[in-house]
User: Which sequence fits this backbone?
């Protein structure tokens, strides 16, 4: 057994690096390349509910003009076409590599798209990651309703599929611990902390809205470390992968020490290419050798919130009070 073997959501991984959902994983060829470079697993580019609906709506606009009687056929065709392409990527990836291939669906409600999940399972995906990233901006927002939507989507999926289900959460919950606990109670195999919102910015010269920094930087890891450190201490029997700001071997070690079984990486692979997977894994091995660990499981959660007392609990510290006293 390799030094770096870990398990995540019931899947056996040769090492803790999962390449996360993005354009890096949108074809069987790219997935094979990542497997060759040593990835422990991949999460495929998400099949977006919006993407499917948008294409369907374009069909409606077209059809309504002259071919209205064809609407049902046309919209069903577009839907199936998208799904079938996605299923082909799963099948071809499973043929060309032997690492776990995790499918991903980005969604908002527990309606029509859930029927895709069974097809994804039948195509050979090893697990399904669900990403329900959305801002809650309505003045009439009912507190807790977004969390309930997560649970209801999960419940519906659990009726249909047997592969592990991984819930990738946004970072916009006031209490992710309660949600993670509910997800575990309803059969989630793992959570990913956290997804990243599409970044907005403003160009002050042109006075227009622009896209902010698309790729993350290493300082973003802190937020995931905090919540992983707290969650892994109090919610048992659910695996955690950290996503967001893991940029080097040190970031992987920190994530595991905080309680993660694995990490999901995206930005750093965009920046440095698949070859960097080996560099990061080698750095983890060097650290393990230096510290005398012979397996990942020996240090998962070793520095989580259970390892600190009230005085030293950095995970739940929020204010910068000491700085006002001139102390660091
Ligand atoms: C260009 C790009 C595309 C992405 N597409 C998806 C996606 O389709 N589904 C998803 O769940 N996350 C998507 N993400 C989010 C990443 O999977 C990841 O969670 C996030 O970038 C944080 O990890 P990082 O700091 O390693 O980049 C995307 C990120 C980027 C930068």
Assistant:
């Amino acid at each position: 057994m390799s030094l770096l073997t870990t398990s995540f959501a019931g899947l056996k991984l040769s090492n803790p690096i999962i390449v996360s959902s993005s354009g890096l994983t949108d074809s069987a060829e790219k997935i094979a390349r990542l497997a060759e470079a040593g990835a422990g697993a991949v999460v495929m580019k998400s099949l977006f509910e919006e993407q499917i609906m948008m294409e369907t709506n374009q069909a409606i606009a077209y059809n309504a003009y002259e071919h209205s009687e064809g609407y049902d056929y046309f919209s069903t065709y577009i839907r199936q076409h998208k799904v079938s392409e996605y299923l082909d990527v799963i099948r071809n990836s499973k043929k060309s590599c032997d690492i776990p291939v995790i499918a991903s669906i980005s969604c908002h409600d527990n309606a029509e798209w859930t029927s895709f999940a069974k097809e994804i399972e039948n195509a050979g995906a090893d697990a399904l990651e669900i990403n329900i990233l959305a801002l809650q901006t309505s003045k009439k927002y009912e507190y807790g309703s977004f969390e309930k939507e997560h649970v209801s989507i999960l419940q519906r999926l659990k009726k249909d599929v047997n592969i592990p289900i991984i819930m990738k959460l946004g970072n916009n919950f006031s209490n992710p611990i309660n949600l993670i606990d509910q997800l575990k109670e309803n059969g989630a195999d793992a959570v990913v902390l956290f997804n990243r919102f599409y970044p907005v910015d403003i160009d002050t010269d042109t006075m227009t809205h622009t896209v902010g920094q698309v790729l993350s930087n290493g300082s973003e890891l802190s937020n995931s470390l905090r919540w992983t450190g707290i969650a892994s201490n109090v919610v048992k029997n659910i695996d955690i992968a950290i996503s967001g700001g893991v940029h080097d071997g040190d970031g992987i070690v920190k994530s595991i020490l905080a309680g993660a079984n694995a990490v999901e990486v995206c930005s750093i692979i965009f920046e440095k290419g698949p070859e960097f997977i080996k560099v990061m894994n080698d750095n983890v091995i060097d650290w393990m050798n230096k510290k005398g660990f012979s397996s990942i499981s020996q240090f998962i959660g070793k520095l989580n919130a259970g390892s600190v007392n009230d005085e030293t609990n950095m995970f739940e510290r929020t204010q910068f009070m000491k700085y006002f006293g001139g102390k660091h």
Notes: DSSP finds eleven helices and 13 strands in the chain.
